[in-house]
Amino acid sequence: MAGQSSPVPLSEAAQQNVRTIIELERSAHAQKSWSEALSDRILAFAGSLAFVLVQLAATVAWTLWNAVAPVEVQFDPYPYGLLTIVVSLEALLIATFVLIAQNRMSQRTERRDHLHLQVALLTEQELTLVLRMLRQVSEHLHIPPETEDAAKADRMTEETNVPELMETLKRELPSTDQNPAGQR
User: Fold this and answer.
1) Could you say which DSSP state residue 10 is in?
2) What does the pLDDT look like over 111-128, one tens digit per residue?
3) Would you list the DSSP string of 105-154?
4) Long-range contacts of range 154-157, CB-CB < 8 Å, 24 or more positions apart?
5) Quick check: 157 and 128 in contact, CB under 8 A?
6) CB atoms within 10 A of CB 66
7) CA–CA separation, 22 and 64 (whole Å)
8) Which residues fall within 8 angstroms of residue 65, CB to CB, at 6 or more apart?
9) Segment 63-92 mean pLDDT
10) Euclidean distance between CA atoms 33 and 73, whole angstroms
């Protein structure tokens, strides 16, 4: 196809990162308990078109049987109380499986957030060190910083006070809870 460029191959570092992520995901998958695996399978089926079609077919068959079959063989005559109980129980179980899955996803997201924060903090510390070393090299070579950059360079070589930063964000960002501002 004319005009399309071929994709740029990933760097070795990016390829290693992809391999690391794949290994972490495989490890997490392998550590699932039998109940988590079963829950995932049930939710995968319950969230599929096949499930919708099975539900629709079963409901139509149930309703038709109990509406058209001879009274002696009807097991749930109109208003289909047993069908209502079965569908309600099914909804309750599916909702429970969804909540279980959401809790697991939330825990996994929290672990990833902690990892991301740790990597970000390490990166900030490393960059601060690199800036200090660069400043020392510049001073050794008698290369003064540009006047407008000197104050910024001073601030950039200071370590970030993470607890103070979190408190500032908590104070300054708008609240994300559903309560009106100021109410707890």
Assistant:
1) P
2) 899 989 989 989 988 998
3) HHHHHHHHHHHHHHHHHHHHHHHHHHHHHHHHHHHHTT-PPPHHHHHHHH
4) 156/128, 156/131, 157/128, 157/131, 157/132
5) yes
6) 19
7) 50
8) 74, 75
9) 95
10) 43
Q: Give yes or no for a contact between 66 and 74, defined as CB atoms under 8 angstroms apart.
A: yes
pLDDT-based confidence at 79, cuts 50/70/90? very high
Mean pLDDT of the chain: 87
Q: How many CB atoms lie within 10 A of CB 16?
A: 11
Q: At residue 110, does pLDDT exceed 70?
A: yes
| Nearest one of 95, 108, 105 to 43, comparing CA atoms | 95
Determine phi and psi for 107, rounding to 5 degrees.
Answer: -65, -40
pTM, 2 dp: 0.66
Residues 43/99, Cβ–Cβ less than 8 Å = no
Q: Is 82 helix (H, G, I), strand (E, B) or coil?
A: helix
